[in-house]
Amino acid sequence: MKVAIIKYNAGNTESVKNALERLGVKPVLTDSPEEIISADKVIFPGVGEASNAMRYLRQKNLEVVISSINKPFLGICLGMQLLCDFSEENETECLGIFPYKVRKFSSSNVKVPHIGWNQIFDLKGKLFSYVREGEFFYFVHSFYVDVGKDTTAICDYDVKFSAALERENFYAVQFHPEKSGSVGERLLRGFLEL
Amino acid sequence: MLVKRIIACLDVKGGRTVKGTRFLNLRDAGDPVELACEYCRQEVDELVFLDITATNEKRKTLTSLVKRVAKNINIPFTVGGGINSIEDIEILLSSGADKVSINTYAVRNPLVITESAKRFGTQCIVVAIDAKRVDGDYKVFLNGGREATTIDAVLWAKRASELGAGEILLTSMDTDGTKLGFDIELTRLVSESVKIPVIASGGAGKIEHFEQVFKQGKADAALAASIFHFREVDILQLKKYLLLSGIEVRLTEAFLDVA
Predict the structure, then answer these.
(1) Which of A106, A128, B90, B243 is buried deepest, with most CB atoms within 10 A?
(2) How much helix, strand and coil, in percent to the nearest 5, is found in chain B?
(3) Is residue A74 within 8 Å of A43, Cβ to Cβ?
(4) 3-state secondary structure of B152
(5) CA–CA separation, A84 and A95 (whole Å)
(6) What count of other Cβ atoms lies within 10 Å of the Cβ of residue A182?
(7) Known catalytic residue: A178?
């Protein structure tokens, strides 16, 4: 199985690579459209800022490539947000796979960024084959996606938001499975088996 | 809900773990990666690697350590100690660190917080503050506590958060190494004046100290080094105790049964 991790200017691609290697998979880290399109699984990680990331993806022509992928595709954190229509982070037009707007946490009741371990509930879909209701994942983000039709897991941080989304072959998680200990490894294993 | 975090700190020098108190009297305590793996088994929530001699020594050993940690550890970790340029930050993050903590560099060049937050994301910029009570106020100390300043620690924390820091790692030099408990007042003052998470550090000696720093100090996370190191406090026991005291923490199911 060929797993491609999309290489771009938004951090932590190495962490995702390391996590997959711990699961016995040798992923390729690449920004080549051919490599990405020919992969059996594609992972779109990301820690960083939305507008810079989108600019880079457009420069590398990856915007079109990502939209055209029909294999299981997993967006992580910023990767999930970039798959939505629009992000409030520097008013950025994103990839538009998921018809949602990415918004900033604005409640004065909680600290922002949302950093640390939080539970996920109302799990749906095959991505969560090995994950149970209420298990803890590691989150680090200031922006979030509302709960909608494509939501497959919910997290609560003063507001309820989408911890995961799914639409056709596109999967996305707001948390970092690659940093969520053994639970995260189980989620990645579920994705690799899709 | 978002739970309180327990963070283990590993002070490293020349690629080895050392621990005395933060500021003096070092003794060798083994391979940082092995120790980090042991902490993971004990359900620690995060790790911090502090290169305590980075200011005066070469950085290569730290970079190779960060790479080894990243390969072997599946929870978040922060790296700090002597970071002195945007390039340093970039190297550590690209080697696999999830966050970097900057201290003296940020005080001398506050705009670096904004610049690096923009470039790498707010969430990976931790501003570390070493504070000590001087004439009734908390003042910021630099260079591993060797250099006093007239900067008010609470105001600096507030400014750092406004400039784009993602977290504050707050060490009380008064309590560090004493094992008499965290500096509750300092932690509460800072935590209530910023809108970002605050990690309390310095002074942990027993399980009850963690309960205090979460309940009274309003900390979002608590960090300790030597007591975890020398097994004076077992992280699992600590988490079970906190759960029973009404403080939510992460425990995986296997361990919950025993709680």
Answers:
(1) A128
(2) 40, 25, 35
(3) yes
(4) strand
(5) 6
(6) 12
(7) yes
What would the pLDDT profile of B172-198 be if each residue is shown by its tens digit?
999 998 999 999 999 999 999 999 999
Tokens describing residue B226? 């030597």
Q: Is residue B258 over pLDDT 50?
A: no
Model pTM score: 0.93
Active site residue B11: yes
Residue B57: pLDDT band with limits 50, 70, 90: low
CB–CB contact B45 A110 (8 Å)? no
Residue B93 to residue B101: CA distance in whole angstroms? 11
Instruction: List the single residue in A14, A115, A182 with the smallest CB-CB distance to B197.
Output: A115
Multiple choice CATH, A3-192, 3.40.50.880, 3.40.720.10, 2.40.340.10, 3.40.630.30: 3.40.50.880
Largest CA distance in chain B: 51
**Separation CA B144–CA B81 (nearest Å):** 8
Q: Which has the closest alpha carbon to A36: A15, A12, A57? A: A57
pLDDT at B226: 85
Q: Which two tokens stand for residue B84?
A: 């002195």
pLDDT at site B253: 64
Instruction: Please report, for chain A, the start and end positions of each structural domain, with discontinuous segments joined by +.
Output: 3-192
Nearest residue, CB atoms, A111 vs list B119, B124, B196: B196
Maximum CA pair distance of chain A? 46
A151 — pLDDT class (breaks 50, 70, 90):
very high
How many Cα atoms occupy the beta-carbon half-sphere of A90 within 13 Å? 12
